[in-house]
Specification:
alpha/beta, Rossmann fold, seven-stranded parallel beta sheet, three-stranded antiparallel beta sheet, serine protease, Type II signal peptidase. Serine peptidase. MEROPS family S08A, serine-type endopeptidase activity, hydrolase
Amino acid sequence: MAQIKLIPYQVESTEDHADEVPSGVQLIKAPEKWHKGYKGNQVVVAVIDTGCDTNHPDLKDRIVGGRNFTKENYGIPSDLSDDNGHGTHVAGTIAANINGHGVAGVAPKSQLLILKAFDKNGKGEMESIIKAIEYAIRWRGNRNERVRVISMSCGTSQNNKRLHQAIQQAVRNDILVVCAAGNNGDGTSETTERNYPGYYKEVMQVGAVDLDRKLADFSNTNDEIDMVAPGVKIKSTYPGNKYATMSGTSMATPHVSGAAAIIVEQMEKEFGRRLTEPEIYAQLVKSTIPLQYSKRIEGNGLLMLGTDHNSSNQNNSQIQGKPYIISEARI
């Protein structure tokens, strides 16, 4: 049976306490959106990962539901426990509460649908990942909420037709799928490293930079990169009410997933209607600044939610009278 694994990542350190807005969240200027009232309120992000510490004080109020697709703990559907740590860390970067202690996520009022598809060793069956995507498409909340973003930090070198079809179905249902580029890079744009599902045209593929806006040497480069985000020494939540600092494109991805939740909240308020997936994608690309790297490294640039920077992106065109960005990665 085909398997898919978490993208390898590095745990730099763990600690019992934290009291900060993490540097990556600050770098993309998420607090500027908070001060304008946009924190991803009620926007549902599905996290397909190793589960989550649902009792973590920074996360317990953000979780709206979930399901276990692994065989761990006898495959009990309601078991969302995270014996790996990766899923809890990703969840925190997306949505950790602003509660006076701990850390804050990019979209601290968004809601998380925890879909456990990877075991404690970071391994998952391809069928489980596909079922998790299909579940995210079908899921409805108590007020008929729907998943608007899927965050995935996993990868395989093999192109899987059914996985691709599931992602295409999610996109047709106006769900933005955000995927890590992978950590097989060699620090140069001249070589191509492909990681699926990140390499699929339909997804938002995210590479990593450090906190000085320099390319992370491990970050994959290819002709489908959409943008980069902070992925080196990122502090977030960790099982057991702890906090960990980790590195990897897995850490860059949830910055973009959280940003998507903020964009959905803000733009739907401004437009007065529901955004389509291409519009969410376009508005996210608009929220980037160039770093002067090759497109194969940075795609459209560094995620930057601070509105002062949006006008610096010169790739604007107009579709149906609304701001729209055409990314080279989707042509």
